[in-house]
């Protein structure tokens, strides 16, 4: 995997180690990781990431587990 440039949300402040970071490789595939465990990276498709973000913004994931 080529060197990725990781970005975190502007809502994340300071050097907190509990941020979700995102990067895209040269082909446009998005990759995600938690800043407190940067060696674990998941990859997805742009369409799946858009669907996930839409659902999260709409509150559809607020009650997962209970």
Describe this structure in words.
The chain has 66 residues and is an alpha+beta fold. Helix content is 18%, strand content 21%. The protein has one helix spanning 46-57; strands at residues 7-8, 20-24, 30-34, 42-43. Strand 2 and strand 3 form a beta hairpin.
Which strand order do you get reading across the main beta sheet? Answer: 1-2-3-4
Look at the helices and sheets and give the structural class: alpha+beta
Count of individual helical segments: 1
Distance between the termini: 37 Å
Major sheet:
4 strands, antiparallel
Mean pLDDT: 86
Give the radius of gyration. 13 Å
Order of helices and strands: EEEEH
Number of DSSP strands? 4
How much helicity do the residues have?
10-25%
- The general outline is globular
As residue ranges, the low-confidence spans are none
Strand-residue proportion: 15-25%
Architecture blueprint of SSEs:
Layout: E1 7-8, E2 20-24, E3 30-34, E4 42-43, H1 46-57
Antiparallel strand pairs: 1-2, 2-3, 3-4
Keywords:
21% strand, four-stranded antiparallel beta sheet, 66 residues, globular
Summed up, what is this model?
By secondary structure, the protein is of the alpha+beta class.
């Amino acid at each position: 995997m080529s060197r990725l440039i990781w970005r975190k949300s502007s809502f994340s402040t300071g050097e907190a180690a509990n941020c979700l970071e995102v990067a895209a490789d040269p082909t446009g595939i998005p990759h995600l990781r938690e800043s407190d465990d940067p060696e674990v990276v998941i990859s997805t498709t742009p369409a799946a990431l858009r669907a996930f973000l839409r659902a999260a913004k709409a509150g559809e994931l607020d009650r997962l587990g209970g």
